[in-house]
Amino acid sequence: MRPEKQIFSYLVLLFVLLSSCKNEEADLNKGYDPTKPIVLTSFSPMEGGAKDKILLDGENFGTDASKIKVYFNNARASVVSSSGNRIYAIVPRLPGADPRISVVIGSDSVVYDNMFVYTAKAQVTTVTGTGDKNFEAGTLNQAHVYGKYLELDAEGNIFMSWRDGGSFGVARINEKENIVTALYEIASSPYPYSNGITVDRATGVVTVSHESVPEVFFSFDPREAWMMRQRNARFSVADYNSIVWADRYANFISFCPYDGYLYTRFRDGKVAKIHPDTYEATIVHQGPYGSQYGQAINPAKPWELYMTLHSNATPNEFRQGIMVLDLRDPNGTGGFKRINAPGGSGFRDGPVKEAIFNLPKDIKFDNTGNMFIADYGNHCIRMLSADGIVTTVAGQPGTAGYKDGGPVESQFNQPWGVAVNEQGDIYIADWSNARIRKLVIE
To answer: Is residue 193 domain-resident?
Structure first.
């Protein structure tokens, strides 16, 4: 073959190969076509739990995984890849009851006909505590704890307040460091008579309520090695007098990321907001009378302040219930309401409007808006999912005891405090067992 013909043949072959590669690349990068419908055919497996792999089959998915959203009810799954007609995803944690799988691409949203059967994989373990009801610092396996309220910072520190067993105080518990240590401890009240704890996870500042003096609360700043600082809220004369001469006990304080204020509630039903730097304070709502045993902000809707009221609430319709206050318009119509069924001192799972609790104590949320409730009188931990369903996630309703293990066999004895970390692990102040427990749900 003449050299020029041979060169020409090589060029033709190279062109064919390059064209083939480009066609293959174009096929691999084939995008979702918004002029055509998304077609869903099947998914596998049909059941599983969090972190399980799932394959979703259909048509017109496109191959750009970053443009594909997959939801199990309202819980978003991680999308790993897409071939155009098959999506590879990871099942999300706690999607709620009877999850339906939806695929969202651009403005199109399609739902599979079949439901996915979700099984929660849960395990309860003991973090620290021996059952002795006096505080004693030390390693996790030696320390004594009798905690009521808990909260966590972004670094994994657990903060616990206690007011029983012969002393009052606030402690720091760290699993990685294997240590329980007191930030302060005193043998008598009221310095401070600590109850609810809140943490600004951006700064790490811990704020603790002090129920007996209306303007006083305490803060612990990690930049100062969590040294205790007394803070005094600055109310107007009229607001302060209305608190002093009313039932002034404030069991909780919560940091609200929606507006950056601290919120506290007094037993006579007044809710106040406090500026975290100037400490200027204003009464923003007057609600029903009643002792309070839980308070939390929903991170998914950070203008919602939730609280649990005790059996002495007046009128009766607010007793032993979970309430919500809309901080965007706290005195507006419907600004304060009960979300679960009346009729406490009982047990019933199901839609929140039908659910019943028995002396519900502390409440906390995970980052997706699931609420966890220490159901003190029922000796169990309940969950209110983001889609409004109450289920029992650990403990045996109505049976007190102490046992680690799975959700069915685990036992608690009058759990009081709860806290949830960034990963969704739940910590429980198991009060009558004098231990801190940990519930991991996957």
So the answer is: yes
pLDDT digits (tens, 9 = 90+) for 310-353: 989 999 899 999 999 999 999 887 789 999 999 888 999 999 99
353, 428: one domain: yes
The predicted model scores a pTM of 0.83
Parent domain of 249: 122-441
Residue where one domain finishes, among candidates 70, 86, 118: 118
As for how many domains the chain has, the answer is 2
pLDDT digits (tens, 9 = 90+) for 102-142: 999 999 999 999 999 998 888 999 999 999 999 999 999 99
Sheet containing 227-232, strands listed edge to edge, beginning at the edge strand earlier in sequence: 194-199, 206-210, 216-221, 227-232
